[in-house]
Every structure is written in C-alpha cells, then in structure tokens.
Amino acid sequence: MSHAATNWAITQRGLKPATRVVLWHLCDRHNPDQGCFPSQDKLAYDCEMSRSALNEHLKILEAKGLIRREQRINPKTKQQESTSYALAFEPDFVSASQSVATQGVVEPCPETGHGAVSGKQAEPCPENAESRVLIPDTNLVREPVIEPQEVRASAPWEGGFSIFWDEWPVLLRPDNRHHCAGIYRNLSEEARAAAIAQAATYRRLMACRKKPPRMVTYLRERLFAELDGGPEFDDEGRFIITHDRPEWSAWLGNIRSRFGERGVQSIVKGGRYLAPSRWPDPKAQAAA
Predict the structure, then answer these.
(1) For residue 195, which of 168, 231, 170 has the smallest C-alpha distance?
(2) I want to staple 30 with a disulfide (CB 3.0 to 4.6 A). Which of 36, 129, 239, 258 is the partner?
(3) φ, ψ of residue 21 in degrees (nearest 5)
(4) Tens-place pLDDT, residues 34-93
(5) In angstroms, rounded to a whole number, what is the distance separating the alpha carbons of residues 98 and 103?
(6) How does strand 67-73 pair with strand 272-275?
(7) Contact 71/80 with Cβ under 8 angstroms?
C-alpha cells in the first residue's frame, strides 16, 4: 500500500463514486518500488463489482489521463501476466494517449485489461464497436435488484437507510444502493437501529483486521448483531473475552473440547481470551 498514492486518489475530482472507488483500490495496491499490477479478479472483488463494470471504469480513468494500462509478458515463459497500472502521480507517468501517439503501444483489451498477445493492434468486436465487453447495464444481474419504485422516499425505513448510507465512507460504498436498501428494508426495526449504531464499530474492526468493510456483507450476514453489546477488541481485531462476559463460558467449553482441561486452566489463569469472533459457534450464542 502506498499512502502517497491513496492520498492522491482522494484528491481527484470530477469522478463518479464507483470510478473513484476503482482508482482508490488501484492506489491501495500500488507499491512504490514494484508498481501496481493487481489481477482483474482481485480488483473486481475489492471494488465489489463485476469485471465488465470494472473495465468500464478503468477505461474512464485511462481516458482522463489518471492511469495507463500496460501489458506484461513473462520474459522466461513468454506468457501474459496481469496488467500493470501506471498512475498519474508517479514522476515518469505518460498517459495512454501520449504513449500511443509517440510509441505506437497497443492498448489493453477492454475485456481483460490486458494487451493483445500477438502484439497486433486490437480491433473492436463487430457486435460492440467500442468495446469487447458487453455494456454493464445489459449484463445478467447475479444478485436480485430492488427496483427504484420499491425504494420510495416516503417509506418509513428510508430515512434510517439514508443516514446509514451517508455515514459510510464514499470510497467504500458498493455500486448498487438499491440492493443495499432492499437488504436493509427487510430487517426488523430493532435490527435496523443496531445496523446504524454499530456501523462505525464494524468499520473500525475491519481496519484493525486490515480488511475492507463491506456494506452488503455487513447487512446480509447481520454482522452488527455480533457487535451490539459485544466485547472490546484489540488492535488486531480480536475480541477480548474476559470472565465477566457472557461469551466466557462458551469459549471455555470450546477450548476444553479442543485442548482439554490444561488449555482451559491456561486461559482462566490469564483472565482473558483473544477470540477471532465473539462466539465460538452459533449454538453457543443461542444458548447464552
């Protein structure tokens, strides 16, 4: 991760939120010494979008002169490797248009983000003149989408969701607001309140674990329930379970089943247990 790169990404203006997310994650993958070359799958996962949508945003960033995609070939195997991304804040950066004009460099394929292996100028697909990737709006949707008319401004839950959405950092929001709204809408009133109340704690927990906070996962898997009334966690994101916590006996039972009585005595003597989750398993939580 390069702080200089991510700080530069945040200062860029005139980009749509989703495009800004792509730029930020590219910068987050930048290494000052080695460069930036995340795989398409990894970058799409980080940005919580399909590869076709990702490439549309990469195309926008390249057209604006903020990045340049470069084909990489393994010198030994001659096989194509993941695309390398040059970022405009780098001292020796040359935009894609300048590079093509002066060097005749082949532009990366719109579908994969990689250049043509043959080295010949890539021609657009006859079906889609400007791109080999189907327009994202025409691609099959993998997840159910809540139609706009169902997310009415007058709905009683809409105000709460707007607060929840607006407080989530722009760079970390998913593309599909309506999908998130649909998940939120299906929660009980009590669960919605907990989701709003624990959102900042969840993001802090993910930061400690060095993982991106995912709004869809947070809502769909009801991760706020684990944080509502939960124990404190350390700077590595481990829950601090002490003898006065309701989770204590559940974890002692879990440790006893795995390590025997000696393991339990060790934990009891220390007075606390650093757990990867609040509860060892759902059954323990239900029984507490």
Answers:
(1) 168
(2) 36
(3) -60, -45
(4) 888 888 888 888 787 888 888 999 999 999 999 899 888 888 887 888 888 988 998 888
(5) 8
(6) unpaired
(7) yes
194-200: long-range pairs with CB below 8 Å, 24+: 194/224, 194/225, 194/228, 195/164, 195/219, 195/224, 196/160, 196/163, 196/164, 196/167, 197/224, 197/228, 198/223, 198/224, 198/227, 198/228, 199/164, 199/167, 199/168, 199/224, 200/167
Tokens of 211: 């993982």
The b/e string for 149-159 (b: 16+ C-beta within 10 A; e otherwise) is eebeeeeebee
The tokens of 148 are what?
Answer: 């706009």
Closest CA to 90 of 27, 29, 20: 27
Q: Determine how β-strand 80-87 pairs with β-strand 272-275.
A: unpaired
Token match 């910068």: residue?
27
Tokens matching residue 109: 């394929």
What domains does the chain contain, in order, with CATH numbers? Answer: 3-138 (1.10.10.10), 148-224 (no CATH), 239-287 (no CATH)
Q: What is the pLDDT of residues 121-141, one digit of tens each?
A: 545 555 555 554 555 555 544
| CB atoms near residue 116 (< 10 Å) | 15
